[in-house]
Amino acid sequence: MPDHPSSSSAINLKEIINPSAESCPIAVVGLTPCIQRTLIFQSLEMGGVHRATKVMESASGKGTNVARILSQLGVPATLISVTGGIRGEHFQRMIKHENFRHFLIPTESETRICQTLIDESTRRVTELVEESPLLETRVLDRVIQNVEGALNSAGFFVLSGSPPPGSDPDLYQNWIVRLQASGHRAFIDTQKLPLIHSLKARPYFVKANRDEWQVTFERKFPSESDIFEFLTGVVGTGVHVAVMTLGPEGACCVHGTNRYRIHHPEVQALNPIGSGDAMMAGIVAARFLSGRPRARHCGWERHARLRTPSPRFRVTFASQI
């Protein structure tokens, strides 16, 4: 693979990946990366002393996960992110050996670490999340410069996770407006104020899990009818496709006037962390690859072991439920 692009100037993603390509590649913006540390215990009880039977580390964060899986699906994607400190150097070493393009902007802020604790006896997963650090003004300026440079060369644009702390709350909204004014598609996975502002720009696709939608809009969704009523309202604002993921219960989707209830195969979950990112990657890949089947199933396969060798998703119209 050719050397990764320098972080000293704005980028043209089409030139980086394939100057002669007819289709522009995908830009994945993930500005809150982390090192994901997964510790597995035979049993785990809070307040006690426990020894992990296995420890794994990987470069992670929502954008990193999306770009990784897009690459695994054969889709040309470039990650735009930031790294800093000793952990940032470790992040760069790990990601260097993975088969996807990345453009990392250096910062003096230490890259965060998030930890996943897995209790094998109960299959309970506990996630310890370190908040992202503030970024220096000059780094934010560099981020904006390079992302806006990518707006001119990316066919699809994925904004995954929260914008950097301290950035303009309208940051995602402004990028979406510019992107879609050029005829490109914006795929959004965020929450709280960035999600509210992003919806004002009417992105092509927006996804969040039930907890994220509930926290953002300060309301509950106790039934499927409540979910579909809400997602229909989101689409009514001009969003093309709106999705609410429901963990082991699947997902609900509204596309235009159609409502879909998605049921995934029965699985024995090992670690659900990153499953939503895998789903986003599968949806983006399916659109990029014109709906080829292999892009459709990865959302629930990524971090789970399937009980059956040939899983089939069941998608029904809500009116048929």
Number of discrete domains: 1
Look at the structure and name the CATH superfamily: Ribokinase
Number of helices: 10
Average pLDDT metric: 84
Largest sheet entry: 10 strands, mixed
Distance between the termini: 49 Å
Q: Can you name the CATH architecture?
A: 3-Layer(aba) Sandwich
Question: What do you see in this structure?
Answer:
- The chain has helices at 13-17, 62-72, 85-96, 137-150, 171-181, 192-200, 210-217, 224-236, 275-288, 298-301; strands at residues 26-29, 34-41, 54-60, 77-84, 101-107, 112-119, 124-128, 156-160, 185-189, 205-209, 241-245, 251-255, 258-263, 267-269, 304-306, 314-317.
- The protein is α/β, with parallel strands linked by helices and 321 residues long.
- Strand 11 and strand 12 form a beta hairpin.
- Mean pLDDT is 84; it is low at 1-9, 13-23, 291-313 and 317-321.
